[in-house]
Structure formats: C-alpha cells, structure tokens
Amino acid sequence: MISKLEKNELPTVEESCCANESTRKSHHSDKVKNNLVVRLNRIEGQIRGIKGLIERDTYCDDVITQISATQSALNSVAKILLEGHLKGCVVDRLQEGDLEVLDEVLITVQKLMKK
Asked: Which residue, among 82, 68, 75, has the nearest Cα to 39 in the 3D structure?
C-alpha cells in the first residue's frame, strides 16, 4: 500500500490530527494558546511594520532583515504547535492504533523543512 506521503498527498480535514469523528480540534492549554496568540499578534505587528518600510522606500537590506526576523518568529510558533501536536494529538492517535497519523506528521515536517 502506498502511503499519502509517498503519493505526496495532503490529509483531508477528517484525516488531520486533532479531531474526533466529526471535526478534529487541538487541545492546547489556555497558557499555550495565550502564548501563541501573543506571538502571532507580535508577528502581525511585524508584518504591518514591513509594509510600512516598503511604503517609505526603506533600504532593501533593512526590509529583508525584518522579513527574516518575522520568518523566525513564525518558525517559533510552528515549533510550539508541532511539539504540542506530537505530544498530544499524535500520541493519542497512536494509542488508538491509528498509524496513518505518522504519514501526516511526515508530510507536515516536510512542509516545515521547505522553508
């Protein structure tokens, strides 16, 4: 049997991690969720700042430096989400005997590594 990873397919919503039979949801603690929201709000501000730099014809190298910092911040959010996903959703599904989750994780890691 060829896995979704080998066929380079993405899992459907029903096949994605943190869901039950109807809709999968994450189960982050309020502390983690608040941390992610604070980080994303900061990133949103960085994006608006980059837009302003471009509108003000700021030197390209300075804009690129800000873009790089924003990408690093997004990568940090992704790492936090991936860790929670592995320790929560993936473990739960493996304990339920759902080995398909491994293909899903590999596809997700491939997406993150493209960056």
From this structure: 75
Exposed/middle/buried for 45, CB within 10 Å: 0-12, 13-18, 19+? exposed
Average pLDDT value for the chain: 85
Q: CA distances (Å), 106 to each of 17, 35, 44, 62, in order?
A: 12, 26, 28, 35
**pTM of structure:** 0.75
Structure tokens, 30: 């309020």
Tens digits of per-residue pLDDT, 44-53? Answer: 999 999 999 9
Contact 71, 115 (CB under 8 A): yes
- pLDDT for 18 equals 53
Q: What is the pLDDT of residue 32?
A: 94
Asked whether the beta carbons of 107 and 11 are under 8 A apart, the reply is yes
Find out whether 114 and 29 touch, Cβ atoms under 8 Å.
no
Length of the chain: 115
In the numeric block, which tokens belong to residue 31? 């502390």
